[in-house]
Design brief:
Largest sheet: 6 strands, antiparallel
Radius of gyration: 22 Å
Helix content: 25-40%
Strand content: 25-35%
Distance between the termini: 63 Å
Number of helices: 7
Order of helices and strands: HHHHHEEEEEHEH
Structural class: alpha+beta
Length: 226
């Protein structure tokens, strides 16, 4: 049977179109459906998950961002909203992690108190590679465990690895002092741990309890996680 190139193209072109459409609709999406809803629906100051009501997300270890997620517009939106959240007057924190806003990814924002001006910086796919130095006990609180405080033993020095949020290049950093403590606290969140798991002593901060009553911390009606 003789088949001309015209006949081949007649059937091949529609087939290629169908394949392209199939691949487009079945391409892995950045973030889960629930995470996309949280990122896009949240106000600039996001709802902060609270223990024990939101234990399902707070106690689940986080996963790395995929390459698609690292390059996504949703990640940029998430970064901006997380920064606004940790710096909001009603929170006034020094750090925040993905699970605290309902996102099960390895992202933290923290204040680099060891740098001039104390800038807030974002770290993606962050991990603590090494803990060293002495161990000291210090007071800690957490936006997700109000209005509690605790005395927690932490190392004085850490080495962290992460993906830079702008260049998307892998980086490492050695951090000392109280900023090293913040890194340990926030990276614990990424492993499903809370500071109360490590604390020698936990107590209610009456000042913080009174302060929180001045703000609305209720969960949004559309919140997709239980």
């Amino acid at each position: 049977m003789n088949v001309t190139m015209r006949q081949i193209n007649r059937y091949l072109f529609p087939l290629l179109i169908l394949i392209a459409v199939f691949l487009a609709f079945n391409r892995p999406k950045a973030f889960t459906k629930e995470e996309r809803l949280i990122i896009r629906q949240s106000d600039s100051v996001m709802y902060v998950t609270v223990w024990p009501e939101d234990s399902a997300i707070l106690r689940t270890p986080c996963v790395d961002f995929t390459k698609a997620e690292l390059k996504s517009k949703d990640l940029k939106t998430l970064m901006a909203k997380m920064q606004a959240t940790v710096r909001a007057p009603q929170h006034d924190g020094v750090g925040i992690a993905g699970p605290q806003v309902g996102i099960g990814k390895r992202i933290i924002w923290l204040q680099r108190l060891d740098k001039e001006g104390g800038p807030f910086e974002c770290y993606l796919n962050v991990r603590i590679d090494s803990l060293f130095g002495s161990i000291g006990k210090g007071p800690e609180g957490c936006l997700s465990v109000p209005p509690m405080r605790g005395l927690v033993p932490r190392y004085t020095d850490v080495i962290v690895s992460y993906v830079h949020p702008e260049t998307l290049e892998p980086k490492r950093d050695t951090v000392h002092g109280y900023t090293a403590v913040i890194f340990q606290h926030e990276c614990d969140h990424l492993e499903g741990r809370l500071y109360i798991d490590r604390a020698d002593t936990v107590y209610v901060s009456t000042a913080w309890e009174a302060e929180r009553r001045a703000f609305d911390y209720s969960k949004p009606d559309w919140w997709p996680l239980q």
